[in-house]
């Protein structure tokens, strides 16, 4: 009868080597005391199979728990794997270990997907938010799909995959799977990130051209961009009533963040990480650092009386922290998550009616139609790049005076529409 695990543990070292059954074709050997008295698993089978085969021994490894050791169950499973491989391939069972060691050595010499991705991120001059998005896509989806230790060259355009497809086909299949979940934009972003990693790998001579993630009119997701919905000016009174009623029972910091959003029409990624040290209340200016702006340049927001009123209410709750929109429940950040404002708008019943980004459309439209302000002033306050490259190079005017006048008129008009500060 094969030994059980408890019986193997109880084996005593002797002067001679001992050998016991541990399962079908599996033995546990106990070395003599003079050789250390170790316990190791060995499998045996006749190879080649048939009457003329010889008994071949394969070392599984030492008995025990922990790195490099084998429990009884694991040793039995490993021997079944080796024996099955030998029967299916017709190869000597001892060759499997040799082939696997050769693969490990080759992988150590050949850069892996994980290494290529890490170096690509380190050498990419990306904004902090973009870098974070790229890292999440790579390490949460792309690398788990293709394997961190996969040699990057194995994903080359014509490199054969285990299922017989090429690297190019594997990449496109992955993109189609993401698109099939209803994430067409995400699938294009994912393809773009992979394209960057592969371009870096090609530059390093780690893989051959062409880039397996290159885009074409045939490989692009069939997506038509949809504009962000936005409210009309005459819908604001009801919106502000709904905001004050707070049927979703949101935290006060969320409600006040929405009010700042409407008055400043900033992108949520620029708004929610706001810190108190960015505000100069004497000069009535909020300076948003460049790494939070899409343009890559710092941006100034004139502080009107209604904006300062809401900030003063926020300071009562979060003034002792670094963040204006501090969130004690934040897991990834110490501030309100950028998705929280859109989530609240949906809970208010405004899904399909407006998004956080929609207030930028409202400001540009109503600013011109209702307040009769020149579109250039509004767009500068929105931090849009204005004019051609030559003009942008020479024109350093920020039009702060005109922008402040617009912001005062804008916030006063919102209060007239029902905004409570």
Automatic annotation (TrEMBL):
Keyword line: DNA integration, DNA recombination, DNA-binding
Annotated InterPro entries: DNA_brk_join_enz, Integrase-like_cat_sf, Integrase_catalytic, Integrase_DNA-bd_sf, Integrase_DNA_bind_dom, Integrase_recombinase_N, Phage_Integrase
One Pfam family linked to the record: Arm-DNA-bind_3
GO BP term, pick one: DNA recombination
Stretches assigned to the Tyr recombinase domain: 226-407
GO MF annotation terms: DNA binding
Family: Belongs to the 'phage' integrase family.
Protein name: Phage integrase family
Species lineage: Bacteria, Bacillati, Cyanobacteriota, Cyanophyceae, Synechococcales
């Amino acid at each position: 009868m094969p030994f059980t695990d408890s019986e193997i543990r109880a084996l005593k070292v002797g002067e001679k080597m001992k050998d016991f059954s541990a399962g079908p074709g599996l033995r546990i050997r106990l070395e003599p005391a003079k050789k250390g008295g170790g316990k190791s698993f060995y499998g045996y089978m006749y190879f080649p199979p048939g009457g003329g085969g010889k008994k071949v021994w394969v070392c599984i490894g030492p008995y025990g728990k922990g790195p490099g050791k084998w429990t009884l169950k694991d040793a039995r499973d490993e021997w079944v794997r080796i024996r099955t491989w030998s029967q299916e391939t017709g190869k000597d069972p001892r060759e499997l270990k040799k082939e696997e060691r050769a693969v490990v050595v080759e992988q150590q010499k050949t850069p892996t997907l994980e290494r290529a991705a890490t170096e690509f991120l380190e050498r990419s001059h990306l904004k902090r938010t973009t870098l974070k998005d790229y890292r999440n896509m790579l390490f949460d989806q792309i690398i788990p799909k293709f394997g961190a230790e996969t040699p990057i060259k194995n994903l080359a355009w014509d490199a054969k995959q285990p299922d017989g497809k090429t690297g190019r086909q594997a990449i496109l299949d992955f993109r189609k799977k993401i698109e099939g979940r209803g994430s067409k934009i995400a699938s294009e972003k994912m393809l773009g990130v992979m394209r960057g990693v592969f371009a870096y790998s090609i530059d390093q001579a780690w893989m051959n051209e062409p880039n397996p993630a290159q885009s074409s009119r045939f490989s692009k997701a069939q997506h038509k961009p949809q504009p962000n919905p936005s409210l009309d000016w005459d819908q604001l009174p009801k919106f502000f009533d709904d905001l004050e009623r707070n049927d979703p029972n949101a935290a006060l910091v969320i409600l006040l963040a929405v009010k700042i959003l409407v008055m400043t029409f900033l992108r949520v990624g620029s708004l929610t990480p706001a810190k108190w040290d960015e505000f100069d209340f004497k000069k009535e200016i909020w300076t948003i650092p460049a790494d939070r702006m899409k343009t890559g340049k710092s941006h100034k927001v004139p502080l009107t009386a209604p904006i300062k009123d809401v900030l003063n209410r926020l300071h009562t709750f979060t003034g002792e922290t670094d963040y204006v929109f501090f969130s004690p429940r934040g897991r990834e950040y110490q501030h309100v998550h950028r998705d929280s404002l859109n989530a609240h708008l949906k809970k208010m019943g405004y899904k399909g009616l407006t998004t956080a980004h929609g207030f930028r459309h409202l400001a540009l439209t109503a600013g011109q139609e209702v307040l009769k302000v020149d579109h250039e002033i509004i767009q500068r306050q929105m931090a849009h790049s204005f004019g051609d490259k030559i003009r942008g190079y020479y024109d350093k005017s920020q039009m702060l005076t005109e922008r402040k006048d617009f912001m005062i008129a804008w916030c006063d008009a919102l209060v007239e529409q029902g905004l409570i500060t």
